[in-house]
Amino acid sequence: MVKLLKILGRIIGISLEWTLLLITVFAFIIRTSPVQTYLAKQATDFLSKELNTTIKIDRVSIVFIDRVALDGVFVLDQKKDTLADISRIYASLGDLNLKKNFLRLSNVSLEKGKVKINRDSLTGDYNYWFITDYFDSGKPQKKKKPFTVALSRLNLDKMEVFYDDYRKSYSDFGMDYDHLHFKNVTLVAKNIQSRNGSVTAYVKHLSTIESCGFLLKKFSAYAAVSQYGIKFNQVQIWSGHSRIQAPKFHMLMNGRDDLQTFVDSVTFDAKIRKSNVSLLDVSYFATALEGMNQRVYLSGDMNNKVKDLKISNLELHTGQRTVLRG
Asked: In a 3-state reduction of DSSP, which class is residue 127?
């Protein structure tokens, strides 16, 4: 009996050793990029079939459990047009607390790629809705504490962003808000937080060129966007021909529907200081000024809705002798 117990003890001991060895080997293998890429391929193949589209990731690298790099991310919409084609996506996890409904990402970077958003010419549906619909259970959600998502740093490098509403015609000149194409987008944003439909962030640097010809060399501001308006503080804008400084530039609304009747519904609350504005840049947004390139130096305060706009503390210089104060 004693001998039998010794044999059983030895078998159990050897089994535990082999189990620990296998766990160690598995933990090592799962951290290798080829295995991670293989597992990602199985997942993307499954999603491609489920969503009736194409989703690919060329390479996956996961370091521990808090950092992941995805190379060669490619997604088609259900009409087989490109939805996203990005050379590299990198993300690192900062903090996750499910009890407090809080997620913080330390860093997210997107490098060298394009994102194409469009609306169907007949239904007006966005081309990414099939993805959100798939992950929406359709069941009513129990009322609970809203989830807060924070991001310490977001980097976009050499990105292209397209937006097309195929229900709308094309404009011949100026910023066509129904058909936008932003090239060479570079963005550095910090302290981004999303909660209850409101997003706040410090935009340290944003630069791009839009297909209409408008060049944005640098935009920086403390930003807050919600259904009640867009608020920019400590604004600096360097465009192709203008330099604008605004301690405050707020566009206030009662809801997002106010944007449909912008002139009658959106209230301005802005302070502009010692700015150099070219009407050539302005003409991209106010197409009635097409062909003008006069330069204006100004500062002042703006209040009220566009239709009843009040400008105070105005100082405007243009041409060689024209000066307006009031």
From this structure: coil
Q: Give me the phi and psi of 35, to 5 degrees please.
A: -70, -45
Return the SS3 of 178.
Answer: coil
Q: Note whether 63 and 89 are within 8 A (CB).
A: no
H helix runs in the chain, sequence order: 2-30, 33-51, 129-135, 262-265, 279-283
Residue 85 main-chain phi, psi, to 5 deg: -145, 100
Determine how many CB atoms are found less than 10 A away from the CB of residue 30: 11
Per-residue CA distances from 203 to 178, 198, 295 (Å)? 25, 16, 27
Cα radius of gyration rounded to whole Å, the chain: 27
Q: Transcribe 293-315 into DSSP letters.
A: --EEEEEEEEEEEGGG-EEEEEE
Q: What is the pLDDT along the chain (326 residues), one digit of tens a residue?
A: 444 334 444 544 443 344 343 334 334 444 555 666 666 677 777 777 888 889 888 887 776 667 888 888 899 998 999 999 999 988 888 776 767 777 778 888 999 999 999 999 999 999 988 888 877 755 555 555 666 778 899 999 999 999 999 999 999 999 998 999 999 999 999 998 888 778 899 999 999 999 999 999 999 999 999 888 999 999 999 999 999 999 999 989 888 777 777 778 889 999 999 999 999 999 998 888 888 889 999 999 999 987 888 989 999 888 888 888 88
Task: Tell me the CB-side half-sphere exposure of residue 208, using CA atoms within 13 A.
Answer: 20
Phi, psi for residue 71 in degrees, rounded to 5: -105, 140
β 179-195/148-165 pair status? antiparallel
Give yes or no for a contact between 64 and 75, defined as CB atoms under 8 angstroms apart. no
